[in-house]
Write a structure and sequence with these properties.
Helix content: over 70%
Largest sheet: none
Distance between the termini: 42 Å
Shape: globular
Strand content: under 5%
Length: about 210
Amino acid sequence: MAGLVVAGMAVSAWHALDPTTWLLETVWVIVGLPVIVLLWRRFPMTDLLCCLLAVHALVLAVGGHYTYAQVPLGDWLRSAFDLSRNPYDRIGHLTQGFVPAVLVRELLVRTSPLRGSRWLAPLTVCACLAFSALFELFEWAAAVIGGHGADAFLATQGDVWDTQWDMFCALIGATVSVLVLSRAHDRQLARLGGDLAASPGPVLTTSGSRPAP
């Protein structure tokens, strides 16, 4: 799966429409993939999370190659549904909530006392919304520093409410992810916990058990 992401990134970088935008859009993959590989022995992840991260990486790679406002799939959707703008960046922000929700949930279950807590779901969604807001601040900083050169990265397409829509899409994506994937994620976490318990060597805990009062 890592090889698939690397291949997708290589194709994405080849003759990218705007190299600066490509770097800004895919920096999360450039930084994140090596971190995952380096930490894999101590912190292997569930198959569900790996698949979702790979899909998210490819979504970012496509957006980085064309810039979000000019992705051909978005142009097709705009024509098919008679939309006023290319909606690919909305897809990207839905993904920005949907995928990190599983990542945040896995981190909280495995490294905090929140496993089985009623606070797990709302805190997961809140963390994803906070990350979306942080990303919007990152875009704002890029616009201030780069001026008109950041237009391709912002992909506002003339929408004055683009920032609010982006965060709303991330919120919807995170909420749907928690509602739809939590049970499957719990099964994979339990299976992963059993595999780690049976394997030699130090690993981070997956029990998430609460300390005794």
